[in-house]
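INFO batch 0412 | record 1 of 1 | parsing
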Amino acid sequence: MVAVTVRSLTKSFGATHVLKGVDVDIPDRGFAVLVGPSGCGKSTLLRLLAGLEEATSGEIRFGDRDVTRLQPRDRDIAMVFQSYALYPHLTVRDNLAFGLRLRKTDAATIDQRVAEVSAMLGLDKLLDRLPKALSGGQRQRVAMGRAIARRPHIFLFDEPLSNLDAALRAQVRVDIRKLHDQLGATSVYVTHDQVEAMTLADRMFVLNKGVVEQVGSPRDVYDRPRTRFVAGFLGSPAMNMLDARVDEAGRALVLPGDQRLPIADPAAFAGRLQPGRKVVLGVRPHDFIVDRDGAAPLRAGVDLVELLGPELQIHARLGDVPLTVCLETAAGVRRGDSLPLAVRALHLFDPDTGESLRC
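INFO prediction complete | emitting tokens
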């Protein structure tokens, strides 16, 4: 397998600039996920890696090879598509073998690889079926098996779970990660689904409007978002964003309804919290704590309580501003309650640039 390096990559379609100087480093055998909303450029970047689009400028390297202008057949990649892209008139066996036959691989090797792949993916008993006789999850396994049989340097996944229902998505997601670990492949995976990104990635690239806004492990990006966009995009339910200002002492935030939230560690913001400065406060719904016995700094009016299995999703108001709070079912919250809240972790962003104020 090989590492993937992208430098200053741009792509324009006429006057529309889709990628604006993207840099990417994916180590050998790494699993990288390109994640972001529709239109951010993630699928375009994957197609550039595959050679299905031509870069406007910049460089793509697979290991020591500059592949920027190479045709797809010369890049030694395999791609798994959202639409499965199986040949409907061919059996599972023939779909798995198709890429090898195009490369004029000898029959004995083809039989061996088809047997290996079908055993790996649990397709042994389905080899003589046509795609129309398979479930969605089985079709996606065949698509993955066809890619694996070729033994390429790099696997590219273009939103491969989008056509599956929730239960199948969870199962095939596990299958993809297991396969990656078993094969030791270099994999690049595109999705708009943050759950897929968080659970699959070794290294996550969050794209927005053609720019990579943050790179890191899923835990690092989730815990320390560098921009308001990244903070709001990752996490379900989404992070609460509240307009606030720093109080006169520089040690608390003045929130809607004139409520005040102490800043536990002002030093973490390296002198950026000047008195009176306007900021955007971000709090994840799961970072609220109910403090009925202590001096909770915040009071939120409860509008609606939704039971979601082991937790409650609470729709509340802080002053006139909507707030989402997630608590354990045992919290016993009801509509109309005045909920005493403390905050376990907070994020502060510049209201103009969207950049995090934390060092």
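INFO post-check: The mean pLDDT is 92.
INFO record closed
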